[in-house]
TrEMBL record:
Matching InterPro entries: ApeP-like_dehydratase, HotDog_dom_sf
Organism in which the protein naturally occurs: Flavobacterium piscinae
Superkingdom assignment: Bacteria
Entries under Pfam families matching the protein: ApeP-like
Protein name per Swiss-Prot or TrEMBL: ABC transporter permease
């Protein structure tokens, strides 16, 4: 994994907060791709017997993916944070999903999402993303997710 410089707080791009936050930082970010990292801790909701479960990997992927599309709700064109924004988002479909291995407590996973397609309406956004998750060089997870994100205020 590359040196951890210029990390972006994921909270700037998502409504999630502890204990449902499954991403620590954005490492790389542009309009079509995002790379995040997440340290698996023992007190995580999706840890069972020191193993980060499949649903944890799916939630990590969804949060990684949604940061690209949800960005416009939380950050304005001048890169300033918008205040009092409320959104709801969910996985509207999983086209493909493969879990190759599960990480354990203490592992830091890296997840990369690439935008396949996107539709923006005034009050909601729909996207399709391809996502891969690694622990070091070991491929853990691959998926193609559809997400729906809607502004609620």
């Amino acid at each position: 994994m590359q040196p951890l410089e210029n990390l972006i707080e994921i909270q700037n791009y998502l409504p999630h907060r502890a204990p449902m936050l499954m991403v620590d930082y954005i490492v790389e970010f542009n309009e079509n791709e995002v790379v995040t990292i997440f340290e698996i801790k023992n007190n995580n909701l999706f840890v069972d017997n020191s193993v980060f479960t499949e649903i944890g990997l799916i939630e990590n992927a969804a949060q990684t993916c949604s940061s690209i599309v949800a960005k416009s709700y939380f950050i304005d064109d001048n890169h300033n944070e918008k205040k009092d924004v409320s959104v709801v988002g969910f996985i509207s479909g999983i086209k493909k999903l493969q879990v190759h291995s599960l990480p354990i407590v203490g592992n830091t996973i890296q997840t990369k999402a690439v935008l396949i397609s996107r539709f923006d309406a005034d009050e909601y956004k729909i996207c399709s993303m391809k996502c891969t998750t690694y622990f070091e060089t070991l491929l853990l997870f691959e998926a193609e997710l559809n997400l729906f994100i809607q502004k609620t205020n």
